[in-house]
């Protein structure tokens, strides 16, 4: 069984780890070996101090490779910050972004390989040889695409800010007018990305940020069309539970695009494939049974289950519920 | 009094530290404030894992800034290697070069500023704001010049190897046929470099490697001509004591260019200005009194003094002896 996941960072990585745990269970798949492909958002990538940082790819690698800092959700377990503490002495800025010593090894290896001329997809494959994530990790694009946030400028005009600067440095405080994916116009889907959607047996939108993670992947030329064309069912898991983002600041992102922070509103934002959207089914948390009923009344296929990814077994059950919703 | 030093890494840095200590003494200069400019070899610079490393500039900054790893002679005191230990897990090579966590902060700050478009001279000035080296630190050139070693290839032919790879990774073991400065043809002297020679009151060739450190600086277009034209006396301190390099593997470098490893041979290699060379005077160690007599018989102005830079006061005395030789 081929499963394809469109993922951002922490939420998507944790979900995929649960999905892999579920698929490894002896009674799953009835003898059909499963193969998981993760299409990762690279819109958060940035050049920092001359090295290329790919937050979502790294979080996926570390989480699936078993070396993530568990409480934090990103970065390496046992991390230190000798370099960063010293770099502050040079006063060259950029210190709002955490660059741990171990994490930096990833950025340096990646930057070296990129400078040698390898595309990001091959660089990612090379880095994954070390971490053995148990899934194919595909950057959404080999071209540089960077999400920027349009915020109020000092003169009442507009100002562009890299998404990571808005998110990490300013904790999403400046009101976002909209998001702009710089480079997206001329970008194309990375090698294997469209095929992973078209040839899948099931496609999953995990509880990642629907605007700047999954939304950015969907905006890559060809991806939305592949989702429309694939014979695989597409199931999503709501990142909104009880009217709030489970993690991160998805509400600030949703507000910017005029979408209410609710499980039902995000479903309608994605839309049903039957009506030109990308979803066949939607899994919401048990606290959102009301939203489920409302969507079902409108003809949606909706599942209800506990969706808090408190640990790997709980997350495996969420993955099982999502798969059951479309595969029966 | 304006003093200009043409320096490589460890030897030149230690000498300059002693020179600064000497010039700070109350009875020196008779009220004339002194100003020291160091023209640093950048031929050892390299791109490693996507960041720019400048070994000699760093050694000068750390040594003059008081943060060098004293026993080692290069790198930072209190250094750690968390990043490097982890990077080895990616198997991308380059692990023959030590990249300490603190040292890496310098490389990242430098790479960021270079990528922002600043020339190396301005980047160096910026980094020196932190370390306050007490001397003007000038890269010999703003263009990338990289010393390569021509060694025997596997097929009996020739093979090019970056100097740092030959020196650090292979401990200068493969016989060097010759040295090639890649990029030198199109390089020009960095801002202030020629003026620092032309306007100096005294120019010093410290006990740096005469082939790949001082030799490379001398090969930068205009530098040798400036040394010929300057009204300042030029004094050198022999890096060879008792027929051996005090530090490093200068003998392997001298052999490649057909120069004997002796205090007299290096002096003749540099040559007297009166005869088209670059030196007015030459300071040798007390164990090389024989070489001094031989050179003096040929009309050289030669000084004899203990030249082992065992500590800062001893090095200050060497600087004093060198200055006394040409300034009286």
UniProtKB/TrEMBL annotation, chains A, B:
Gene3D superfamilies: CofD-like domain, CofD-like domains. InterPro entries: CofD, CofD-like_dom_sf, FbiA/CofD. It is an enzyme of class 2 (transferase). Keywords: Magnesium, Transferase. This is 2-phospho-L-lactate transferase. GO terms for molecular function: LPPG:FO 2-phospho-L-lactate transferase activity; magnesium ion binding. It comes from Pengzhenrongella frigida. The keyword DNA damage does not apply. Signal peptide: none annotated. Its EC number is 2.7.8.28.
